[in-house]
Each structure stands twice: as C-alpha cells, then as structure tokens.
Amino acid sequence: MKIYFKYSCIIIAIWSFTSCKKYLDVTPDNIGTLDYAFRNRNEAQNYLYSCYAYLQRMNDVATNPGFTTSSELIYSNSLDNFQGFNRTGFNLLRGTQTAANPGLNAWDGSEGSYSLWRSIRICNTMLENIDQPIDLSAAEKKRWIAETKFLKAYYHYVLFKMYGPIPLIKTNLAINSTTDEVRVKRSSVDEVVDYIVSLLDEATPDLPPNITSQATELGRVTSVISLSVKADVLATAASPLFNGNPDYASFKDKEGASLFPLVYDLQKWNKAALAAKAAITAAETQGVKLYVFNSPSTVGKLSDSIKRELDVQNAVTEKWELNPEVIWASNPEFNYQGHSTPRLTAKSAVNAFSNPSTFSAPISTQELFYTVNGVPITEDKTWDYAGRNTIKTGDNASRYYIQQGYETIKGHFAREARFYADVAFDGGVWFGNGRNNQDDPANPLYFVSARGSGFAAPSDNIRLNITGYWPKKLVSYASVYDDGFQPSPFRLPLIRLAGLYLLYAEALNEVNGPTAEVFTYIDKVRQRAGLQGVQASWTNYSKTPNKFSTKDGLRQIIHQERRIELCFEGQSGWDLRRWKELQAVLSNPIQGWSINNADAINYYRPTTQFIPVFGLKDYLWPIKSYDLVVNPNLVQNPYW
C-alpha cells in the first residue's frame, strides 16, 4: 500500500533532519533544508510521513518493552541475534539493565531502540513550518496539524511510560540557544500527563473518525485512535505506579520540587473512566465491534470448539482492513510468525530460516489462562490443580484441541478457548498451516509433536523453543510453513475494542466498585471466548465464590482478564508496570519443560530457564549516566 511504502522509505530522509548528539537533541540542524522540505504540498506531506516514521520503527515488537519485558515470552540466551533478531529487550529480565548503558534506550536512541526526542523535534518542525506550502488546502492543513499533535503526544507518552516525569519539549529551541536553555529539566508527572492530554484534546476534533481510503491512508491517525490513547494515558496516570506511589515520595528535581504526586487521587480514575467511555462510544459509532470469524470458502465445516478458537485468534491475525475490532494497529506487518510457530511438517523441521520457532512462553504464561469454567486454575473447585502435571492421553472429547491417543498432561485439558487459541503445546492440535478442514481423513489437522523425534522437538541448540510452549495467537491460521513460507500477513493491534472494554471496566471498578456496568463490559469479552459472566462463573465454580463482590476482588479478576485477553500483544508488560505487579510476577523462576527428553514422564518436569532480575528500580528506565553529566539539570530515576 502506498502509505506503508512511504512510511518505510521516509526513514532514510529523516537522517537529513537529525543529528547524533548524545542527549536531548532539541536544536534543529540543517536549517537550510527546511525551506525545501516545505516548499509545496507534496514535500510537506513527505515531512508529515517522517513524523510517522519513528512510530513505525518503535512498534516492532523487539523494541517494545511491553512485549519483551512482560515475561509472557522469553528468548533463548544462546541465540546471538539469530536471523538479525535483536534480543536486547528480552535480555533485560536477565539483569542486563544498567544506568551506564540502558537497554531499549528510547532517550538516546541506542541499544535496540530509537530516540523519541528526535521524533518530537521533527513534529515540532512540522508544526512550525506548516504555513509555508502555498498549495496546501485549509482542510488538509487542519488534519496534518492534528496528526502531528497526536504523534507528538504519543511520543511523549511512550517516554513517560518508560521514564516517568520527563522534560516537555513544546517547541524546538532556537539555533542560537544558550547552554542553559538547552539544559532542560524534568516536569512533574501531573504536568506531563496534562500536556499529553491537552495535545490529544487539540488534535481529536480535526482528525477524521475513520479512514475512507484504506488503500492509500490506512495507518494514519483517526479521532477514535486519539480518544482511545487518551483513555490509556489517563488510566496509566491513575494507576498505582504514578498515582500517590510512596516509593517515589522523595523523588524531587534539583530545585526541590516533587516530581511525583504525593497523595492518591481517586478523581484520576474517574477521568480515565469518562475517557474510556467516550472512546468506546466513538468507536462503536464507526462500526467497531468484537471480531467474529466468518469462514471463507477455503475453510471446511467448523466445530464449535474450533470456531470459538478462531474467533479469538483471528481477532489479532485478521488483516486490519477486514477486522472490525481493531482500532489501531502497528506498522510494519508482524514479522515474527516463523518465530511463533512450532514446526509441524518434515520440511519445516529442516527450514531454520523460515521456521526458527524460538518465541517461547513460560509455564507461568499458560497457567494464567482460565479453566473451561472461566475461573483461574488455582480457584476452580472442579479442576485438579495439584495433579495438573500428571500424564493424560488425548481423548475423543478433546479431539479438536488435543491429539487423540497422544500423551500430554492433565493441565492441557478442560481449559478455556483462549488457551487453545493463544498457546501451542506438545500434543496440541493446530488448525491451519494449509489444513483447514477438521474432518478430512486424508489430510488430518496437524498437531504439535515436541518430544523425541517430533518435528517440533529440538534439533540443535539454535532452532529450538526452550519452554515447550509457542505463542500460537501470533500466527495466522492461513499462514503455511512447510518447504517455504507462504505468509498471511497481519499487523499486531495496538488498541482493539476488547482491551478498551476492559480498560473501562477497570476504571469504573476503581471509582465505584462492583456495579452492573462493570460486569457488562467484562462479560462482553468473556462471552466471545465462550465463557459465562463473572458472577455466574465465580458463584458456581470458584473456591472464593464472592470474590467479585468487592473492589479488591474484582480488581484481581479484571487484571487477570486483561492479561489473558491481551496476552502476547505487547500490552501486559505495560499493565503490570502501571499496576506495580511486575515485581511480584517476576519473583518466581522462569520455567519450561525438560525439552530434551523423549518420554512424556520425563519431558513434563519443570526446569528453570533463568531467575528474573527485577527490583523496585526497574519500574522506570534509568537515564543514561552520560546524559546526567552533559545536562546537570536532569536527575536520575530513583534507586539507580
């Protein structure tokens, strides 16, 4: 598509407008080129696309801390940038983060990331020069200004999520700025949030509600996207990490001003709830709705089990332009389907470059998903949690999820549909990969054989899944890995309606506790997954049947619901940070199965891959030590 091509090509042009300084580079270079860049509408449009360009680069999952530091997935430490994959983000959980050389350094643009200050500077330059093109219509000018303000807000927001209180670069500094003027200071959390929200509020009215020309403009910002990001910003600001966090009570700038709010403010949750409801209303007005799989002619008859699995899986892997649930998706296309797919055929087993199979979900990730009764496996009074790792053979009742006659574990049985849609495991049935008819005896559905001489079993120390679980959710059923790779491309959602529903439910619960409206929005998501509502599920099956009746209990339910629904989408890592729950999640060893054993009895023994390194200081990224020397007005984040 034209717009995607321009986004890719314009990255090269950006470098002519940027410099390589090691700290907040806010003074524009190459001033002589600006007149040319804005001499007419076409050149100015190219510059607009340059404002988008870093959005494209930072949304590669390898550079997204919400994806790599969530512990939902891990990556083998023995793979040294296999196929050029940058594992810097995954390695942060192994204790590689330092103030001397931070990983995924979005402040300076190093160690696997890109400088978002540079992106903000480009946006400021766009706003400062938008009046120059004489052939730019008034309508386009309003839209371009709005898009640029949105992008400027979003880049500030990503920096805020990583670093907390940050400097606000409202305008570019003059070329003759003094040293003191260049040495910017950090603004407080509330000041940063207020500024980001003000930019979004200014942008929203002048953005189109939807993209009518998808062939040329899909990927550009809409008012629904802007409203949804605003809700996310306000929910983050209302969450425990930023709202009256006692761990940062003494965090001040060089002049003694507090950088974090000292007192918890419930009204911040009320603002988040109002913003989320406004975003939902705007989205639904534009026809956004929860995805339901509509079988194409290439798919045979579907059982209810597989149909429900595809409802969930395709909510992520369906093409953006065909997916009514996606509000905003990433650029570029998701390029890691081969990393997420177990090898299912003899030919794929020897095709390391197409099917490396290296994205690994720990045991803790699969245990996050509910039982078939819609409650946690630790709470379901009908489910054998203590015996979950004992051997059980696939039977006829579970034939659409687990291979009949194959030995796996009891814990893989009687799980909710999202478990089977999201996670591939030894013995698990795989609908797709060229076999889309569940009842074709000549071409039965593939299943994962991860032990002994199975196609998905380790064949060397490079092409292996180190836990025995794969993120099936990140692979389209229509993609085929065999002798080569026939992709069915998709763009990983950044915001989809199910996540917005759960964000609204979360904010409402924080304001008012359990109410009918809270349950309505949680249950919309659960219903698509084939589950009963929260109240019915907990009442009938949970060992704590009244858990949903208190704000604290319902909060736990909503948090787990979000982690399940948005698993592997680059969201849970950010959620766990804002909730201040990531340290607890990472307090246990990261484990997988004993993947080099052929017999089930020996394979299904938990083995530790590594002990996570995550302390209180890791909730915020360190500013590189060098930057503190260059700019003495900056203060380091606490505990670094």
TrEMBL record:
Superkingdom of the source species: Bacteria
Primary location group: membrane
RagB/SusD domain residues: 324-640
Compartments where located: Cell outer membrane
TM regions (residue ranges): none
This protein's UniProt keywords: Cell outer membrane, Membrane, Signal
Keyword NADP included in the entry's annotation: no
Family: Belongs to the SusD family.
Keyword Signal attached: yes
SUPFAM superfamilies: TPR-like (SSF48452)
Native organism taxonomy: Bacteria, Pseudomonadati, Bacteroidota, Sphingobacteriia, Sphingobacteriales
SusD-like N-terminal domain residues: 115-213
Protein name: RagB/SusD family nutrient uptake outer membrane protein
Any one annotated GO CC term: cell outer membrane
